[in-house]
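re: ur question from the group chat, yeah i did fold both. here u go
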Amino acid sequence: MKVTVERVNLLRSLTHVHRVVERRNTIPILANVLLKVDDGQLKLKATDLDLEVLETVPADVAAPGGTTVPAHMFYDIVRKLPDGSEISLELEGASGTMVIRSGRSRFQLQVLPETDFPDLTAGTFTHRFSLPASGLKRLIDRTQFAISTEETRYYLNGIFLHAVDGEREPRLRAVATDGHRLAQAELTAPNGAEAMPGIIIPRKTVSELQKLVEEPDATIGVEVSDSKIRVTIGAIVLTSKLIDGTFPDYGRVIPQGNDKILEVDRDEFASAVDRVSTISSERGRAVKLSLQDGRLVLTVTNPDSGSATEELSVDYGADALDIGFNSRYLLDITGQLEGSTAIFRLADPGSPTLIQDKSAADALYVLMPMRV
């Protein structure tokens, strides 16, 4: 194997691929990235056995072949080489090493055989569809923050992606919840997505997809089976196992009859919550919302450090209400809203609250209250 490649292309691909590799591995081959050279291309692949990323870069191939090298060390070498340089990669069979040359720099890396590298891509994908990169990014951005990190409820450790019947057309919907809050976003279902099975995309895969979507105008190909998802973004192919579990019936926790309506300027509200929560403890984070006749008073009390209040003028005409929320959760949700006005649909101090963007009906958030 002998190949020459532009540093800028190799670095961009390694940036995408090496993130999959865990820093600590008990299986040596999983610490490596697979390099395969053929037909004017260099293919790079990395996996952790649950997630695999493959990317192809153009290259000047002198001799085809393949090998694997330590992913993070290879990435660091390429990252530190000069901008605009060309990098030569050559496998020296006699010594069992790969030689990296660029200008006056020369490195030798120990290799492991490509035959040891596991393949995650085997299997048949039953459903295929395409959608704009901006659409996929929007679904992820609006819901990712609500993914649970509680490992015992593993079925909540991802985004539930599924098709639903809309009023006029099928919709592709993403939902995430950690039991304290729920985020839901949707868009028009692309052709081919209407009959797809409901799937739970793992948190790590969601995070990688978010980073790989770099051009909002690009078209993304999605293939789905009962156990895997494969996403093609230009020259990048991401394949991932799905979470094998049943996502709960989230529709039961979305309140339907909340009749106390609060409309508030999103930026003013977020800034006020952020200010008063400076007083809150790391454990508590509770902020009380006191509502009556066009007035909202935010209050935080911390026995160890003091208290804070701030008053806002709002659009609220229902009965007076005191309700508490986790301030960080409030800021997470208001950070997802795009318009200038946030709508809170409230019921009572012990019931979930529905939060929406006044200017966008394709996303909603549910937040459980706290005792204050």
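okk and heres the other one u asked abt
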Amino acid sequence: MEPVPHILVVDDDREIRDLLSKFLERQGMRVTSARDAKEARKLWPLGRYHLVVLDLMLPGESGLDVARWIRSQGETPIVMLTAMAEETDRIVGLELGADDYLGKPFNPRELLARIRAVLRRASGEGAGPGAKEPPAKVIRFAGWLLEPARRRLLNPDGVEVPLTGGEYELLQVMVERANRVLTRDMLMDLLRGRQAGPFDRAIDVAVSRLRRKLEDDGRNPSLIKTVRGGGYVLAATVEKA
């Protein structure tokens, strides 16, 4: 039996905390809530959380501080709640490793859909009944090794490189479509099932973060190349076994 997802909601608005707690619990999830960073830190060792819903506008320590701290503790997925005007903070949050974001005010059902999508990616669920071939046990590219079953990335020296759920999904999408130009809209659709807005920099941020993990020079990348006016392409020979 699969474990019940345990969600940590961090938001200083009591009404939002209560609303999300009741709503997510009705959807079969377990919810713990915290009103600020201090309370979140106290609650962290008391439960094994599968995902954190994190408001960026917190009193005292900001949501960005909390996101940075969560990343220092491991790879627990993060869905950020942001005011629509907080574009800079949203981008910084994605750079810190958040897996998705949703602007306030939001529809609880949309947040539920985002949470379920991130949890599926984090658990490594496959493509489902429509898959045409079994997943590869290992994927090799440019000296790197990707293990889909364990969602692991090993560098050319055999050392594991930690990836967030979002980073892993982006890399998998690009590896499966190596040497093909993928526009930002295509990547957003493949990763989140929705089209990117004209000013959405989420993909650019995710690619930049992934380049750092792959030790790919951001100023002159040789592995994940930028196609001017087009998008990105993973320039590598891929071998599956």
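fwiw on the second one: DSSP finds eight helices and eleven strands in the chain. The first helix runs from residue 14 to 26. idk if thats what u expected
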